[in-house]
Specification:
The protein is an alpha/beta fold. It folds into two domains: 203 residues, Rossmann fold (3-Layer(aba) Sandwich), CATH 3.40.50; 107 residues, Rossmann fold. It contains nine helices and 14 strands. Strands 2-1-3-4-5-6-9-10 form an eight-stranded mixed β-sheet. Strands 11-12-13-14 form a four-stranded parallel β-sheet, sandwiched between helices. A two-stranded antiparallel sheet has the order 7-8. A hairpin with an 8-residue loop joins β7 and β8. The N and C termini lie far apart (65 Å). The structure holds succinic acid. Succinic acid binds next to loops.
Amino acid sequence: MNIRIFIAVALLFISQSIFSATTQPHIVILATGGTIAGTAANTTQTSGYKSGEIGVQTLINAVPEMKNIARVDGQQIANIGSENMTSDIILKLSQQVNTLLARDDVDGVVITHGTDTLDETAYFLNLTVKSDKPVVFTAAMRPATAISADGAMNLLEAVTVAADPNARGRGVMVVLNDRIGSARFVTKTNATTLDTFKATEQGYLGIIVNGTPQFETRVEKVHTLRSVFDVRNLRKLPEVVIIYGYQDDPEYMYDAAISHHVDGIIYAGTGAGSVSVRSEAGIRKAEEAGIIVIRSSRTGNGVVPVDKGQPGLVADSLNPAKARILLMTALTQTKNPELIQYYFRTY
Ligand code: SIN
Protein backbone atom coordinates (compact mmCIF):
# COMPACT_ATOMS: atom_id res chain seq x y z
CA MET A 1 0.00 0.00 0.00
CA ASN A 2 1.24 3.49 -0.87
CA ILE A 3 2.52 5.16 2.33
CA ARG A 4 0.26 8.21 1.83
CA ILE A 5 -2.86 6.07 1.51
CA PHE A 6 -1.79 4.09 4.57
CA ILE A 7 -1.38 7.28 6.65
CA ALA A 8 -4.74 8.66 5.43
CA VAL A 9 -6.55 5.41 6.33
CA ALA A 10 -4.84 5.32 9.74
CA LEU A 11 -5.80 8.95 10.47
CA LEU A 12 -9.41 8.28 9.44
CA PHE A 13 -9.57 5.26 11.75
CA ILE A 14 -8.08 7.22 14.69
CA SER A 15 -10.40 10.19 14.20
CA GLN A 16 -13.45 7.89 13.96
CA SER A 17 -12.46 6.16 17.22
CA ILE A 18 -11.99 9.52 18.99
CA PHE A 19 -15.31 10.77 17.59
CA SER A 20 -17.24 7.69 18.68
CA ALA A 21 -15.64 7.75 22.18
CA THR A 22 -16.69 11.36 22.72
CA THR A 23 -20.18 10.95 21.24
CA GLN A 24 -21.02 7.73 23.10
CA PRO A 25 -23.18 8.17 26.21
CA HIS A 26 -21.19 8.20 29.46
CA ILE A 27 -22.56 5.68 31.96
CA VAL A 28 -21.15 5.30 35.48
CA ILE A 29 -21.51 1.89 37.17
CA LEU A 30 -21.80 2.03 40.97
CA ALA A 31 -21.11 -1.38 42.50
CA THR A 32 -22.46 -2.43 45.89
CA GLY A 33 -21.84 -6.22 45.88
CA GLY A 34 -24.31 -9.10 45.70
CA THR A 35 -24.25 -12.33 43.71
CA ILE A 36 -23.31 -10.47 40.52
CA ALA A 37 -19.98 -9.92 42.27
CA GLY A 38 -20.01 -13.36 43.92
CA THR A 39 -17.74 -16.36 43.50
CA ALA A 40 -18.31 -20.03 44.33
CA ALA A 41 -15.95 -22.96 44.77
CA ASN A 42 -17.16 -24.68 41.59
CA THR A 43 -19.18 -24.01 38.43
CA THR A 44 -22.35 -25.77 39.57
CA GLN A 45 -22.65 -24.12 42.98
CA THR A 46 -25.57 -21.66 43.00
CA SER A 47 -26.11 -21.29 46.74
CA GLY A 48 -23.92 -21.01 49.82
CA TYR A 49 -21.28 -18.99 47.89
CA LYS A 50 -19.74 -15.63 48.90
CA SER A 51 -21.42 -12.56 47.41
CA GLY A 52 -19.58 -9.25 47.10
CA GLU A 53 -16.17 -10.69 46.20
CA ILE A 54 -15.38 -9.13 42.80
CA GLY A 55 -14.56 -5.44 42.36
CA VAL A 56 -16.25 -3.09 39.91
CA GLN A 57 -13.34 -2.96 37.44
CA THR A 58 -13.35 -6.77 37.14
CA LEU A 59 -17.10 -6.65 36.45
CA ILE A 60 -16.52 -4.05 33.72
CA ASN A 61 -13.59 -5.95 32.18
CA ALA A 62 -15.74 -9.09 31.98
CA VAL A 63 -18.21 -7.38 29.61
CA PRO A 64 -16.15 -5.69 26.85
CA GLU A 65 -19.34 -5.55 24.70
CA MET A 66 -20.38 -2.52 26.80
CA LYS A 67 -17.75 -0.50 24.89
CA ASN A 68 -19.93 -0.71 21.76
CA ILE A 69 -22.75 1.03 23.63
CA ALA A 70 -21.29 3.53 26.06
CA ARG A 71 -18.22 4.99 27.65
CA VAL A 72 -18.30 3.16 30.96
CA ASP A 73 -16.43 3.69 34.20
CA GLY A 74 -17.03 2.39 37.69
CA GLN A 75 -17.01 3.29 41.36
CA GLN A 76 -17.17 0.92 44.33
CA ILE A 77 -19.75 2.07 46.89
CA ALA A 78 -19.73 -1.15 48.96
CA ASN A 79 -19.05 -4.85 48.37
CA ILE A 80 -21.55 -6.69 50.53
CA GLY A 81 -24.40 -9.16 50.42
CA SER A 82 -27.53 -7.02 50.23
CA GLU A 83 -28.91 -8.52 53.46
CA ASN A 84 -26.26 -6.28 55.05
CA MET A 85 -27.33 -3.13 53.20
CA THR A 86 -28.06 -0.28 55.63
CA SER A 87 -29.93 3.01 55.54
CA ASP A 88 -26.56 4.80 55.87
CA ILE A 89 -25.28 3.13 52.66
CA ILE A 90 -28.45 3.75 50.63
CA LEU A 91 -28.38 7.39 51.72
CA LYS A 92 -24.76 7.70 50.58
CA LEU A 93 -25.65 5.92 47.31
CA SER A 94 -28.54 8.31 46.61
CA GLN A 95 -26.28 11.30 47.31
CA GLN A 96 -23.57 9.96 44.97
CA VAL A 97 -26.11 9.32 42.19
CA ASN A 98 -27.43 12.88 42.58
CA THR A 99 -23.88 14.28 42.40
CA LEU A 100 -23.07 12.23 39.27
CA LEU A 101 -26.29 13.01 37.42
CA ALA A 102 -25.90 16.75 38.08
CA ARG A 103 -22.79 16.61 35.86
CA ASP A 104 -23.24 17.45 32.15
CA ASP A 105 -20.79 14.71 31.16
CA VAL A 106 -22.74 11.85 32.83
CA ASP A 107 -25.75 10.48 30.92
CA GLY A 108 -26.90 7.70 33.23
CA VAL A 109 -26.05 5.47 36.17
CA VAL A 110 -26.15 1.68 36.57
CA ILE A 111 -26.11 0.19 40.08
CA THR A 112 -25.11 -3.42 40.72
CA HIS A 113 -26.72 -4.81 43.88
CA GLY A 114 -27.65 -8.07 45.60
CA THR A 115 -31.11 -9.28 44.63
CA ASP A 116 -32.30 -9.88 48.21
CA THR A 117 -32.99 -6.24 49.10
CA LEU A 118 -32.53 -4.61 45.69
CA ASP A 119 -36.17 -3.52 45.56
CA GLU A 120 -35.74 -1.47 48.76
CA THR A 121 -32.67 0.47 47.58
CA ALA A 122 -34.12 0.97 44.09
CA TYR A 123 -37.38 2.36 45.52
CA PHE A 124 -35.43 4.70 47.85
CA LEU A 125 -33.60 6.13 44.83
CA ASN A 126 -36.91 6.34 42.93
CA LEU A 127 -38.06 8.69 45.72
CA THR A 128 -34.86 10.72 46.13
CA VAL A 129 -32.98 11.09 42.80
CA LYS A 130 -33.40 14.62 41.44
CA SER A 131 -32.89 13.90 37.75
CA ASP A 132 -34.73 12.38 34.80
CA LYS A 133 -31.54 10.76 33.50
CA PRO A 134 -31.77 6.94 33.60
CA VAL A 135 -30.89 5.11 36.83
CA VAL A 136 -30.87 1.34 36.33
CA PHE A 137 -30.36 -1.37 38.94
CA THR A 138 -29.11 -4.78 37.94
CA ALA A 139 -28.03 -7.98 39.69
CA ALA A 140 -27.60 -11.71 39.18
CA MET A 141 -29.06 -14.87 40.60
CA ARG A 142 -26.03 -17.01 39.75
CA PRO A 143 -22.50 -16.16 40.93
CA ALA A 144 -19.97 -15.04 38.32
CA THR A 145 -18.23 -18.44 38.48
CA ALA A 146 -21.36 -20.53 37.67
CA ILE A 147 -22.14 -22.20 34.34
CA SER A 148 -24.54 -19.89 32.54
CA ALA A 149 -24.03 -17.04 35.00
CA ASP A 150 -26.59 -14.31 34.30
CA GLY A 151 -24.61 -11.29 35.58
CA ALA A 152 -22.70 -10.37 32.39
CA MET A 153 -25.82 -10.22 30.18
CA ASN A 154 -27.79 -8.39 32.87
CA LEU A 155 -25.01 -5.78 33.20
CA LEU A 156 -24.80 -5.33 29.42
CA GLU A 157 -28.58 -4.89 29.18
CA ALA A 158 -28.64 -2.47 32.13
CA VAL A 159 -25.99 -0.30 30.45
CA THR A 160 -27.93 -0.53 27.17
CA VAL A 161 -31.08 0.75 28.91
CA ALA A 162 -29.18 3.50 30.79
CA ALA A 163 -27.64 4.68 27.50
CA ASP A 164 -31.00 4.83 25.70
CA PRO A 165 -32.48 8.38 25.45
CA ASN A 166 -35.95 6.76 25.61
CA ALA A 167 -35.21 5.60 29.15
CA ARG A 168 -35.26 9.18 30.51
CA GLY A 169 -38.07 10.23 32.84
CA ARG A 170 -39.33 6.72 33.63
CA GLY A 171 -38.19 6.63 37.26
CA VAL A 172 -35.60 4.23 38.62
CA MET A 173 -35.59 0.93 36.72
CA VAL A 174 -34.61 -2.66 37.46
CA VAL A 175 -33.16 -4.68 34.56
CA LEU A 176 -32.71 -8.47 34.82
CA ASN A 177 -33.51 -11.37 32.56
CA ASP A 178 -34.41 -9.22 29.49
CA ARG A 179 -37.08 -7.31 31.46
CA ILE A 180 -37.25 -3.63 32.42
CA GLY A 181 -39.17 -3.19 35.68
CA SER A 182 -40.18 -0.10 37.67
CA ALA A 183 -38.52 0.26 41.09
CA ARG A 184 -41.95 1.22 42.46
CA PHE A 185 -43.51 -2.11 41.54
CA VAL A 186 -41.08 -4.99 41.01
CA THR A 187 -39.89 -7.19 43.83
CA LYS A 188 -37.99 -10.46 44.21
CA THR A 189 -40.65 -13.18 43.98
CA ASN A 190 -38.62 -16.40 43.90
CA ALA A 191 -35.74 -17.42 46.17
CA THR A 192 -33.67 -19.15 43.49
CA THR A 193 -34.88 -18.80 39.90
CA LEU A 194 -33.53 -16.32 37.32
CA ASP A 195 -36.93 -14.76 36.45
CA THR A 196 -37.42 -13.60 40.02
CA PHE A 197 -38.13 -9.84 39.65
CA LYS A 198 -41.80 -9.34 38.91
CA ALA A 199 -44.71 -7.00 39.47
CA THR A 200 -47.61 -9.43 39.38
CA GLU A 201 -50.32 -6.78 39.07
CA GLN A 202 -48.57 -4.02 37.11
CA GLY A 203 -46.20 -5.94 34.79
CA TYR A 204 -43.04 -4.49 33.26
CA LEU A 205 -42.13 -1.13 31.74
CA GLY A 206 -40.66 -2.95 28.77
CA ILE A 207 -38.39 -5.67 27.46
CA ILE A 208 -35.02 -5.91 25.75
CA VAL A 209 -35.14 -7.66 22.39
CA ASN A 210 -31.83 -8.64 20.80
CA GLY A 211 -30.03 -5.78 22.56
CA THR A 212 -32.68 -3.12 21.94
CA PRO A 213 -34.86 -1.76 24.76
CA GLN A 214 -38.55 -1.68 23.86
CA PHE A 215 -40.62 0.40 26.31
CA GLU A 216 -44.32 -0.45 26.68
CA THR A 217 -45.72 1.55 29.65
CA ARG A 218 -45.07 4.45 32.02
CA VAL A 219 -45.51 4.70 35.78
CA GLU A 220 -48.25 6.95 37.13
CA LYS A 221 -46.93 7.13 40.72
CA VAL A 222 -44.74 10.14 41.61
CA HIS A 223 -40.97 9.62 41.31
CA THR A 224 -37.56 11.31 40.87
CA LEU A 225 -37.95 14.88 39.55
CA ARG A 226 -41.58 15.25 40.72
CA SER A 227 -40.85 13.79 44.16
CA VAL A 228 -40.81 16.30 47.04
CA PHE A 229 -38.18 14.37 48.96
CA ASP A 230 -34.66 15.80 49.02
CA VAL A 231 -32.02 13.89 50.98
CA ARG A 232 -28.97 15.45 49.31
CA ASN A 233 -27.79 17.08 52.53
CA LEU A 234 -29.29 14.63 55.01
CA ARG A 235 -26.96 12.79 57.43
CA LYS A 236 -29.25 10.10 58.82
CA LEU A 237 -32.57 8.49 57.97
CA PRO A 238 -35.29 7.99 60.63
CA GLU A 239 -35.59 4.50 62.15
CA VAL A 240 -38.58 2.43 61.06
CA VAL A 241 -39.14 -1.24 61.97
CA ILE A 242 -41.44 -3.92 60.55
CA ILE A 243 -43.66 -6.06 62.78
CA TYR A 244 -45.15 -9.18 61.17
CA GLY A 245 -48.77 -10.19 61.67
CA TYR A 246 -49.58 -13.87 62.24
CA GLN A 247 -51.67 -16.15 64.46
CA ASP A 248 -50.67 -15.49 68.11
CA ASP A 249 -48.63 -12.37 67.14
CA PRO A 250 -47.61 -10.89 70.52
CA GLU A 251 -48.24 -7.34 71.73
CA TYR A 252 -44.74 -7.18 73.24
CA MET A 253 -43.22 -6.59 69.77
CA TYR A 254 -44.82 -3.11 69.94
CA ASP A 255 -43.57 -2.59 73.50
CA ALA A 256 -40.03 -3.35 72.26
CA ALA A 257 -40.38 -0.87 69.36
CA ILE A 258 -41.75 1.83 71.69
CA SER A 259 -38.97 1.34 74.25
CA HIS A 260 -36.37 1.58 71.45
CA HIS A 261 -37.88 4.99 70.49
CA VAL A 262 -38.36 4.06 66.83
CA ASP A 263 -39.75 6.77 64.56
CA GLY A 264 -42.16 4.52 62.71
CA ILE A 265 -43.62 1.00 62.52
CA ILE A 266 -44.77 -0.93 59.46
CA TYR A 267 -47.29 -3.61 60.29
CA ALA A 268 -46.91 -6.46 57.73
CA GLY A 269 -50.51 -7.42 58.16
CA THR A 270 -52.54 -10.50 57.42
CA GLY A 271 -54.81 -10.27 54.36
CA ALA A 272 -55.81 -6.69 53.60
CA GLY A 273 -53.92 -5.42 56.66
CA SER A 274 -56.25 -6.92 59.25
CA VAL A 275 -55.06 -6.70 62.87
CA SER A 276 -55.44 -9.17 65.70
CA VAL A 277 -56.69 -7.90 69.09
CA ARG A 278 -53.08 -8.06 70.33
CA SER A 279 -51.66 -6.10 67.38
CA GLU A 280 -54.50 -3.58 67.63
CA ALA A 281 -53.61 -2.91 71.28
CA GLY A 282 -49.93 -2.59 70.33
CA ILE A 283 -50.59 -0.23 67.42
CA ARG A 284 -52.83 2.01 69.53
CA LYS A 285 -50.15 2.13 72.24
CA ALA A 286 -47.49 3.05 69.65
CA GLU A 287 -49.70 5.79 68.20
CA GLU A 288 -50.25 7.21 71.71
CA ALA A 289 -46.44 7.33 72.01
CA GLY A 290 -46.33 9.50 68.85
CA ILE A 291 -45.11 6.75 66.51
CA ILE A 292 -46.56 6.63 62.98
CA VAL A 293 -47.85 3.12 62.18
CA ILE A 294 -48.62 1.95 58.64
CA ARG A 295 -50.70 -1.15 57.96
CA SER A 296 -49.49 -3.07 54.89
CA SER A 297 -50.23 -6.55 53.57
CA ARG A 298 -47.99 -9.58 53.91
CA THR A 299 -49.71 -11.09 50.82
CA GLY A 300 -47.46 -9.07 48.51
CA ASN A 301 -50.26 -7.92 46.23
CA GLY A 302 -53.30 -5.68 46.32
CA VAL A 303 -54.16 -2.41 48.03
CA VAL A 304 -54.79 -2.14 51.79
CA PRO A 305 -58.07 -0.19 52.02
CA VAL A 306 -58.60 2.70 54.41
CA ASP A 307 -60.77 1.50 57.30
CA LYS A 308 -61.76 4.14 59.86
CA GLY A 309 -62.38 1.43 62.47
CA GLN A 310 -58.79 0.22 62.31
CA PRO A 311 -55.72 1.89 63.84
CA GLY A 312 -52.82 3.20 61.74
CA LEU A 313 -52.44 4.57 58.22
CA VAL A 314 -52.39 2.30 55.14
CA ALA A 315 -49.61 1.37 52.71
CA ASP A 316 -51.56 1.38 49.44
CA SER A 317 -49.97 -1.37 47.28
CA LEU A 318 -46.44 -1.13 48.75
CA ASN A 319 -45.07 -4.33 50.22
CA PRO A 320 -43.92 -4.03 53.87
CA ALA A 321 -40.22 -3.53 52.98
CA LYS A 322 -40.98 -0.75 50.48
CA ALA A 323 -43.53 0.78 52.86
CA ARG A 324 -40.67 1.03 55.36
CA ILE A 325 -38.56 2.89 52.78
CA LEU A 326 -41.35 5.38 52.06
CA LEU A 327 -42.09 5.97 55.75
CA MET A 328 -38.38 6.59 56.51
CA THR A 329 -38.25 9.05 53.61
CA ALA A 330 -41.56 10.75 54.47
CA LEU A 331 -40.49 11.20 58.11
CA THR A 332 -37.51 13.29 56.92
CA GLN A 333 -40.15 15.91 55.99
CA THR A 334 -43.17 15.58 58.23
CA LYS A 335 -44.93 13.78 61.07
CA ASN A 336 -48.34 14.91 59.83
CA PRO A 337 -50.48 11.74 59.39
CA GLU A 338 -52.69 13.23 56.63
CA LEU A 339 -49.65 14.25 54.58
CA ILE A 340 -47.96 10.89 55.14
CA GLN A 341 -51.14 9.08 54.04
CA TYR A 342 -51.19 11.28 50.92
CA TYR A 343 -47.59 10.23 50.11
CA PHE A 344 -48.58 6.57 50.49
CA ARG A 345 -51.44 7.05 48.00
CA THR A 346 -49.39 8.90 45.40
CA TYR A 347 -45.73 7.67 45.51
C1 SIN B 1 -27.53 -10.63 47.89
O1 SIN B 1 -28.65 -10.12 47.86
O2 SIN B 1 -26.51 -9.96 48.11
C2 SIN B 1 -27.35 -12.09 47.67
C3 SIN B 1 -28.29 -12.67 46.70
C4 SIN B 1 -28.15 -12.13 45.31
O3 SIN B 1 -27.49 -11.18 44.99
O4 SIN B 1 -28.82 -12.76 44.43
